[in-house]
Amino acid sequence: MVVLNKYKKIQESLGIIGRSEGIREVIEQIMSVAPTNISVLITGESGVGKEIVAKAIHQLSPRNGKQMISVNMGAIPEGLLESELFGHERGAFTGAIAMKKGYFELADGGTIFLDEIGETPLQTQVKLLRVLET
């Protein structure tokens, strides 16, 4: 009963709904990775709650006092994607009238959740992989 109460408290505080063994496993994985400083790949079909899991990891992590940024990669036009992610300097391209911080710089020690990575061009995916590996 004590174990079930532990899960129930965590579920309520994180907004995770369900009582199945699968939900308990997800909560255990969240609690396992949250205190670490590693990149986490969250997979699943559309609508299963990947962003909720990302928010739960953020809440339970040492980064919880910093910003969490969620980015829907599929909603950013291909021509703006790199600028949005990595930022740009004034004059870097036509229309860059001022320096702009990208999402990675804005997250600044916090958490960045990249949704729909599969919708981005392969070249951008390679750049993302390099950023996540460093």
Would you give an account of this structure?
The chain is mainly alpha-helical and 134 residues long. 45% of the residues lie in helices and 7% in strands. Helix 2 (21-33) packs across helix 3. The mean pLDDT is 87.
Tally the helices: what do you get? 6
Strand composition percent: 5-15%
The poorly predicted ranges are: none
Radius of gyration: 17 Å
Mean pLDDT: 87
Globular, elongated, flat, extended or rod-shaped: what is the shape?
elongated
Q: Helix amount, in percent?
A: 40-55%
Strand order of the largest sheet: 1-2
The helix/strand series, from N terminus to C terminus, equals HHHEHHEH
Annotate the secondary structure layout.
Blueprint: H1 2-14, H2 21-33, H3 50-60, E1 68-72, H4 81-86, H5 103-107, E2 111-115, H6 122-133
Parallel strand pairs: 1-2
Helix pairs in contact: 2-3
Main attributes?
134 residues; elongated; 45% helix; mainly alpha
Give a nutshell description of this structure.
With 134 residues, this protein is mostly helical. The protein has helices spanning 2-14, 21-33, 50-60, 81-86, 103-107, 122-133, and strands at residues 68-72, 111-115.
